[in-house]
Specification:
20 strands, binds flavin-adenine dinucleotide, FAD/NAD(P)-binding domain, six-stranded antiparallel beta sheet, alpha+beta, seven-stranded mixed beta sheet, 414 residues
Length: 414
């Protein structure tokens, strides 16, 4: 084992690991960040379509409704390092920010690479935090004296194994989604080997694939519609906004918002449908009167429907309702039901639901209740959120909680 004992080893240089290391750079502690890729933050670069929606400016009262499965667990981390603290921190390290529609906050430059680079510059400006790239942690063990032993496979240059010793460890290895970015679920096995339970993982914020999906819908965006998720015949969730049809299936803000529950219901073998109300602002009776008033006898129904739907949607809408008539049109426009067959897997799911069981982690400081000195931050824990900057805030807040406790608590524990 290396003779150097680090105060803290951070495993994974994604959003959470980079934030933990950047905050550690404000201390004198000996810290090392290990990232298995040749660069940090590969997923961070993809976020917000390359613009990185860093956080959301809403108050906790609103913010908490977007956190799953237990916003109460997340509350202390958020209070200790909130969305406002995130913005202040980035501004302090030289990254300007802007707030846009839906209180979404982005870097002013519009470039996710600037977020990653700002964090890395802060880390590299310190003399106490080292960063090792192409360094994959293979195992994390705790020795009898409470010190951690980490086996690290170095892929930089000649392949070699190194053993590191640390007083504390933060596991920030992410989830399973977009595995090509390095998030391959390694943290779950480290946690399990150290005695933790992992709540079964599944993709979330992912596209729903209808039965006999009509690919001609791909590219269509329906705005100002409402979308209901129907499980075994009953409405379980209703959302208003924008639905996007892509090559993958039904997504966009509304599709993603219902995907968490839809995935669980599909996994449980339940019947899942979504229902689109194309005219949510107009009651059905009023729509019926309007259609009766405006329909000119002899006009092809497909031409008439162009008044109510974008052109691209007309044929798939007609295909979905083979016996459509003028009199059934209002009810069909208000209740366009699409049976869902399955969902897109981790390769294109934005986040992973499930993860290290919250009951075994202290909500106060993200420390394991099983192994003192072991911390978790980011998507590896059983926390996930809706789109809108909430997931990165989970990563930043939990990282801040963990690092502050890890670097102040060791003296108290020994
Ligand atoms: C396409 C896309 C767009 C998104 N857009 C947004 C957005 O705009 N706003 C938002 O809030 N959220 C967004 N998210 C979600 C957000 O990116 C994640 O929730 C967040 O990155 C999780 O951070 P993390 O640090 O926990 O994990 P990750 O960012 O996944 O980082 C984990 C890191 O650990 C490294 N690692 C893994 N195992 C090991 C090991 N054994 N040894 C060493 N290193 C290891 C990985 O290589 C990786 O770099 C988006 C996600 C995707 C996929």
């Amino acid at each position: 084992m290396s003779s150097r004992i680090y105060d803290l080893v951070i495993v994974g240089g994604g959003a959470a690991g980079l934030m933990a290391a950047a905050l550690a750079a404000e201390t004198d502690s000996r810290v090392i960040l290990l990232e298995k890729n040749e660069q940090c933050g590969r997923k961070l670069l993809l976020t917000g379509k390359g613009r990185c929606n860093i956080t959301n400016g809403r108050s906790w009262e609103d913010f908490k409704n977007h956190i799953h499965p237990d916003s109460g667990f997340f509350r202390p981390s958020f209070m200790a390092f909130s969305n406002k603290d995130t913005v202040e921190f980035f501004n302090k390290i030289g990254l300007g920010t802007v707030e846009e529609r839906g209180s979404r906050i982005y870097p002013a430059s519009g470039k996710s690479s600037d977020v990653r680079d700002a964090l890395e510059s802060r880390i590299k400006s310190s003399s106490n935090v080292e960063v090792l790239y192409r360094s994959e942690v293979i195992s994390v063990e705790v020795l009898q004296n409470g010190v951690f032993r980490l086996d690290v496979l170095s892929l930089a240059g000649k392949m070699s194994m190194t053993v590191l010793a640390a007083k504390s460890v933060i596991i920030a290895t992410g989830g399973l989604s977009y595995p090509a970015t390095g998030s391959t679920g390694d943290g779950y096995s480290f946690a399990q080997r150290l005695g933790h339970t992992v709540v079964p993982t599944r993709p979330s914020l992912t596209a729903l694939i209808p039965f006999n999906y009509n690919f001609s819908l791909s590219g269509l965006i329906l705005r100002n519609v409402s979308l209901s998720l129907i499980v075994d015949g009953g409405v379980v969730q209703e959302e208003f906004g924008e639905v996007a049809f892509t090559k993958g299936g039904i997504e966009g803000p509304l599709g993603f918002r219902v995907s968490r529950r839809a995935v669980d219901a599909l996994d449980e073998g339940k019947k899942v449908e979504v229902e689109i109300d194309c005219k949510p602002a107009v009651p059905e009776q009023e729509l019926k009167c309007r259609i009766e008033r405006e329909y000119v006898h002899g006009l092809r129904l497909s031409r008439f429907i162009e008044h109510f739907l974008p052109l691209q949607a007309v044929k798939p809408f007609m295909d979905a309702h083979p016996s459509l008539t003028v009199s059934s049109l209002p009810v069909r426009l208000k209740h366009w039901r699409i049976p869902i067959k399955t969902y897109v897997d981790y390769r294109r799911a934005v986040v992973t639901a499930g993860g290290v069981d919250l009951r075994e982690i202290s909500r106060k400081n993200m420390e394991s209740k099983i192994v003192p000195g072991l911390y978790f931050a980011g998507e590896v824990v059983d926390l996930d959120a809706d789109t809108g900057g909430y997931n990165l805030q989970i990563a930043f807040s939990t990282a801040a909680s963990a690092v502050r406790s890890a670097l102040s608590d060791y003296a108290d524990r020994n």
